[in-house]
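Task card 7
Instruction: Convert sequence to structure tokens.
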Amino acid sequence: MKGLLETFKNIWRIEELRKRILITLGLLLVYRIGSFIVLPGVDSARLAGSSSGGSGLVDLLSIFTGGAFTRASIFALGVMPYISASIIMQLAGIAIPAVQKMQREESGRRKINQWTRYITIIISLFQAPGYILTYVDAEARPVNDPMWMPTSVVILTCSTLFIMWIGERITERGLGNGVSLIIMIGILARLPESFIQEFVSRMGGGGGLVAVLMEVAFWLLIIAGNILLVQGTRRIPVQFAKRVVGNKQYGGVRNYVPLKVNAAGVMPIIFAQAIVLIPMYLTQIPALRDVQWMARFSDYKSVGYNITLFLMVVAFTYFYTAITVNPNQLADDMKRNGGFIPGVKPGKATAGHIDELLSRITLPGAIFLGIVAILPALAGGVLGIKDGFAQFFGGTSLLIMVGVLLDTLQQIESHLLMRHYDGLMKTGRIKGRQSATYSSMAAG
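Output:
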């Protein structure tokens, strides 16, 4: 405990780090306050009693906004339009060579960021009326006010842009990745309420305190497994040849290329859930509500839904890893910088060696990621955990929380080490989701 208090004192002594933490907390507080502001004209009492707020689809969508989605808040759309726009531009960079070329240049990246903002506005303008008509109960909306709908659409769109601005300011002047922190704080905001509901349920005849403690212990084990998944790497040794430039000698040392066990991150689960959620969206249409197979498949606890989700997560993990990590480019960069893998010829042989290692470590990573994706359903269906708390046992929410916290702690530790203070851990170093690129390692 004494060491922990000393670490907090060291963090507070660093002026720059202190300012960044306060700016981050202040902007996140603004976001949380905004999530409780209901759209003008909406009757919050009627909205709370409406039947549209209890479906599994609403719960899944609301968990990323800290409940703003179900409250018809001005921040109801959250950063989801911005995330969708970012994914579109990321896929465009893979499919369109011109965009891929722009991603390598500073001016091109600025232009891509500007395009992402424009696409965010377009997506918000389409999502806002759909959200109002589908999830804001008709009795809670103003009657005989023709301007209410366009006004609400403008408010939701502008609020999304404001949240995006908050995220950019956190990234620039605060601590950690702003958009990721906003998503994480929205997820964590639902944790106390969900845990209290689970605790009350268990104490009311569902197993008592022993059951609660076993659930918490199981949850902590899952978190530890996710940390191993996020931090797990396979290091490839690389030897650099000696080079003499002027009076200085470069190279002649051994470095490592870290291949992540889960190089795809959380993207496979996001892509897979976006596809398997289509039946849930379709069942909101009155004409398709009675289609039996679609109704069964829209239940996220059903066997068909989880088997499909698991297989799609595994497939998307391989797909996203293949487009994220390029063995040929790694081999070319290695050869250009005078590096080689001991016992492997440079060029095609090196690319083949890296590709083989990547395929081997991706399989267990993909399987584990697939298991993480279906853990909420297993926790709710097999262990009998309530839906709200079960969402924290896996899926996108848990991976985001673990990854974002590790990234933020890594930045704090970097500030401490730069000022010659001890890190957050007595042994080892905290590693975030993103591994160092080969080029930065070669330069070091």
